[in-house]
Every structure is written in C-alpha cells, then in structure tokens.
Amino acid sequence: MKKEVIIATIILFLIGCTIPIQETGKAYFVENIENNTINITQNQSNKEINKTKNDETISTPCEQQWRCISPAIKALQLNNCSFSERVSCKNGCFNDTCIPSSTCTAGFKCINNNMRGYQLEDCDWISKSVCEWGCNNTQCNQQPNFNISNTIQNTTVAEPTTKPSPAPIPQYSLKEGTTTTIGSTNVSIYTFDQYRIKLLMNNRRSDWIMENGNITLPSGERITITEILFQQFEGGTRAISYTIQ
User: How many CB atoms lie within 10 A of CB 36?
Assistant: First the structure.
C-alpha cells in the first residue's frame, strides 16, 4: 500500500511540471511568429524603397550638351540620352568641342616659288595661279625682256671640228702554196674552199675558219680572215686576205 502511494505521488508531480512547460513553448512559438512577421514587413518596405530609388535613377534624363562621339565628330546629346545634330570637326574633336583651325591673315601670297594664291583666314587657299617667271612679294614676276640683237652679237659660233679618220688597218694577202711569217709563226694555207679555210701554223693545223673569223697564232698575234678568194677553175685565184691585231 505504501508503495502505491509513492507511485501516485510521482505521477502527480510529473503532470504538474508538464503543463507550465507546454504553456512556455506555446508562448515562445507565438513570439517567434510575431517577430518574423515584423521582419517580413520591414524587408518588403525596404524593397519598395530600393525599387523606388532605382526607378528614379533609370528615369533620370541626360543633361543636354554637345559631346565628342568620335575623334572627328561631335553631336548634341538630348535629355533622353539620344544624339542629334552631328557635326564634323575638320581638325578633330577634343573635350566635347571641335578643335579650332589655325588662323591666318587673309590675302594674296606666294604659295611657293612658282605659285600665287589667296589665303583665307582658316589658312585654306583659293584663286591659285602659276607664276611662269617665279613669285616674289605676293606677286608673279614679269616676263624678262631679252635683247635678241645683243645676244646674237655676243654669241660666238663655234667652228665645226672634224675628227681625224682612224688609220686604215693594213690588209695582207696569202696565196695557196706560199708561206709567210707572222711574228715567229710560219703560216700557210692547208686547205680551203669558197667559204672557209684551214691554216698550217708551224706544221700545226687549225680548225675551220670562216670568212671574217679570227684565230690566235702560237706566237700571240691575232689574225682575222677578211676575204676568201677561191676560183674553182684551173688557173683561178686562190688566196686569202687578212689583218693582224
């Protein structure tokens, strides 16, 4: 009996402890829900603010002004950020403006020694003209006056000079059956016809030599066969003409 009373007491104690714990957990759960709701509401509010700021940034127009859109072109940028009124810059575009041209004093000037023209303030040239007699002090020079009579009187006519004619080259003749000595070489006709010839030089035969052909002798002299005379009939002339160099 005593044992049963102890068990009943323990059960009642446990039941009494469980109820506050459940109540505490319920309160904690409710508090978390409220905190999360507050955080979600705050995050949504922040997103709305950021979206509004971004929309304001996107919709902000560009400042209307001239801008360089290339090294040689400037254009007017409108408030909607588009470009219009493109202008070509002759000397280039820098810092959103066309580089100004050099300034020159307008007037007629000598472009070079043989040309005259009108230079504009932007240094370009117009009305160019060629100065046949040269350009000096912004003016084309006048044609000089030539005194033809004095020129003729003062001109000395050179007498024509004649060059002496070169001395003729000696021609030599060699008949068939004869021998001649050229330098230290004995030369004779070995055989020939009306177009070519073979010579005998110190008992050494040459190759065929055509008319106007040449050969160098063993002693160093060079002979040229200038003519071959070969008459085929009996008693006809058979000889050669030659020169020595």
Answer: 10
